[in-house]
Structure formats: structure tokens, C-alpha cells
Task: inverse folding
């Protein structure tokens, strides 16, 4: 499946829903349930490989996992590549193509220096990735200013400026991750329109229908599904220690 198909599924008000997968089997379940796209969760994949999130897993293992997922399904696959693992744009684009991915999440967190990359640096990286991949890659540019923010309204202007710069550099969609205040998220969507916005449903934040009403074009569950499955497994293991079979 092509990037064009993935790109056209980003519709404001009728968002693409992505229940992020972490291995080939979970990806197959996502496709079998009728979802038109499989997205990966870098956090969940890293954990299943025995590493922490935040680019702690070897890049070869992360892309090998992505390739297994892409081979297992017939729908478009978009891969969470964190902040790019220090790869040059051409190498990152090539590895995504080799894995069979037609989309990627690309963060502006700097895992080496800490904090966020400068707006100018991240926009430059997105522009280089766009040039290297052409139209064959849907770039979802993550805007991380809300991560750890105690006041979402206080960082909204920064988020908007970054998002507009990322669109200008060639991003197809922007992802203000962890923004959950309806008014703030709504203002963000309006400010960057007609650009596509990705949001995450969070406890205490807008639900799926409310996010659609706010005009987002894409909804990612991130680690949500993996955490839910893992919590269920932990509960069953606890029951098993008490002599109760989980089936």
C-alpha cells in the first residue's frame, strides 16, 4: 500500500484511528479488526525487545521489528522512529523503505543533549527527510512541548510556531503529544489549519468523539493498548500464583 493512501486517510473531523501495534501478531489483529492502517509504538516495541523507551534499543532491532510488522499485514504501516536514532535523513528514509513503511512519527525531543531540538534544527531535519523520501513517506512530526508541561496554555504558542514550521518543512501531519485540555487542543487545531493534527486520547481529556469534534485528523493510542494488555496479563499471573487458572 502506498503513502498516498495513508495520506488521504487524514481527514479533519473524521480522524484516522490508530491502535498502535508492537509485533507482527498484534499488527495482524489490528488489520483483522478492520483498521486501514497499522502504526507502531516505539515504547512498546522497545519494551518487548528488553530495552527502555527513548532510543535505548539498538536501531537495527527496532527496524527489524518494524519490518516484521510490515511483512505481516497488507495495509499501510507507519513506524514510530522516535527522534531518528541519530541517522542522517537519507539513511532514515532508506531504512523505512526497506522495512516496508510508508509513514513515520518523528519527534523533536533530543535524546542526546536532553530537552527539545531547536525549532530551526528540527525543521531542517524534516526538510531533509522529505527531500530524501519524496512523496513515498507520510511524515507525522511530533511536537513535544506539552511533555512535562504544568500549564498547557503557557506552551501553546511555542507548539503552534513549531507546528507551522514543521508543515513548512514538509510534514504531512503534526502531533502535539500529551496535549489534552480541550480548549488548548482546539485552539492548536484552528491555528495550524488546514494542516492535519494527530492527537492522543488521555485520561481526563477528550474522548474519541470529542477529538473528532475538535477537528483532529488522526488519533493514536500510543502505548495505551499495550499497557492495557500488559495490565491484564499481570492480573492473570497474580491469579495464577493463587492457584486460579486464567482460562
Result:
Amino acid at each position: 500500500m502506498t503513502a498516498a493512501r495513508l495520506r488521504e486517510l487524514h481527514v479533519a473531523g473524521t480522524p484516522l484511528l490508530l491502535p498502535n501495534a508492537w509485533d507482527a501478531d498484534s499488527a495482524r489483529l489490528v488489520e483483522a479488526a478492520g483498521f486501514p492502517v497499522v502504526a507502531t509504538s516505539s515504547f512498546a516495541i522497545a519494551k518487548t525487545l528488553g530495552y527502555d523507551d527513548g532510543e535505548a534499543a539498538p536501531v537495527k532491532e527496532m527496524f527489524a521489528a518494524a519490518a516484521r510488522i510490515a511483512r505481516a499485514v497488507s495495509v499501510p504501516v507507519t513506524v514510530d522512529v522516535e527522534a531518528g536514532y541519530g541517522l542522517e535523513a537519507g539513511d532514515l528514509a532508506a531504512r523505512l523503505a526497506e522495512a516496508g513503511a510508508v509513514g513515520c512519527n518523528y519527534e523533536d525531543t533530543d535524546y542526546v543533549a536532553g530537552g527539545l531540538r531547536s525549532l530551526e534544527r528540527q525543521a531542517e531535519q524534516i526538510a531533509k527527510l522529505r527531500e530524501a523520501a519524496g512523496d513515498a513517506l507520510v511524515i507525522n512530526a511530533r511536537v513535544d512541548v506539552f511533555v512535562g508541561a504544568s500549564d498547557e496554555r503557557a506552551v501553546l504558542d511555542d507548539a503552534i510556531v513549531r507546528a507551522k514550521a514543521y508543515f513548512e518543512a514538509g510534514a504531512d501531519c503534526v502531533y502535539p503529544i500529551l496535549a489534552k485540555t480541550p480548549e488548548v487542543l482546539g485552539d492548536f487545531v484552528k491555528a495550524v489549519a488546514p494542516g492535519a493534527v494527530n492527537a492522543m486520547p488521555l485520561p481526563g481529556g477528550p474522548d474519541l468523539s470529542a477529538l473528532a469534534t475538535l477537528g483532529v485528523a488522526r488519533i493514536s493510542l500510543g502505548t495505551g493498548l499495550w499497557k492495557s494488555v500488559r495490565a491484564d496479563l499481570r492480573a492473570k499471573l497474580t491469579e495464577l500464583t493463587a492457584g486460579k487458572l486464567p482460562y
Q: What stands out?
A: The chain has one domain: 3-222.
